[in-house]
Amino acid sequence: FVHIPFGIIIGALGQRLSYKNYLTFIGVPNPIWNASVKLIISFSVVNVIYSQSCDVAKDDGRIVLWILTYVFGTFAVTSGALVGSSFQPVAITGGIACGKSTVGTYLEKRNFLIIDLDSIAHDVLDPYKMGCDSAYPYLVEEFGNGILNHPANTKTPHPPIDRQKLADIVFSDPAKRKKLNGVTHPLIFKTMMKLILTYTIRHPTMVVAVDIPLLYETGGFMTMLFALVVVVATTPSIQMARLKRRNPSFTEEHCRERIDSQMSMDKKVRKADLVVWNNEGLGKLEGRVDVVAREVMGRVVGFGVRFLSLIPVVAFGVLLLEGAVFRRCVG
Predict the structure, then answer these.
(1) How confident is the model over 316-327, as pLDDT tens digits?
(2) pTM
(3) For 251, phi and psi rounded to 5 degrees?
């Protein structure tokens, strides 16, 4: 069973390497790089399986055992590679009021599947939607009934959490914010990972992307999870104007606090693999999204080559080419 974790590692590293075209300076297209990397890795993996099977054949001398070892090894590595390559999503991030949701909407029209972390964060606060993955009972226990919204003339055993009340409590209190994140973040992460795996396996020709507002601020494992990061950026003055327009009740000081609580736009742009500048109208924005979408599709999907099909095909091809394989192994 060591083949399965080996396959997971190969799938994760191989998929990530296929996203990073190191030969663009000589004009190698992204889809060709993507397919070439996966083909080379598949041949290398099959060579390892082949060598291990030959060792078994030398020790035992039975062709049936060699075939079973070869087939099982190929199946196990391929299964692991499927899992490893599936957990390589694209991240869409940026500052507050920069237009991440709008960019996500445009990308959905271009063969992208968007997982909205804000939407998941809303759902985990709901007392009914997430079942055992709901944060509702833990938050009520921690912060009390004061965070609940009691609609007039409505009797319900589980009134919804008022997100604004909760935000007001934790915004200026780091200790309470840490408690909130300690409850909600694991549940959000668990749901996100389920969706990434499901979407990637079910829709292999589409790009799975996660709209994650605070990717760089979260840090740690979260930043390592994403193979490609797209930052939606704008100028500070436009960001401030949009935030005021979106939240008329916010004072300028309140808006400044919200913006300053996040990593600066300059740092995010420097860390990004790709940047979508959203400092003009929607027409310009859609054109820029189109350029980035083609770039990401070329890197991630390419010609549609996947380890799931490539490793077994290469393994079968090697078996056909080696007509006297068993005699060579035991001879």
Answers:
(1) 888 777 655 555
(2) 0.86
(3) -80, 170
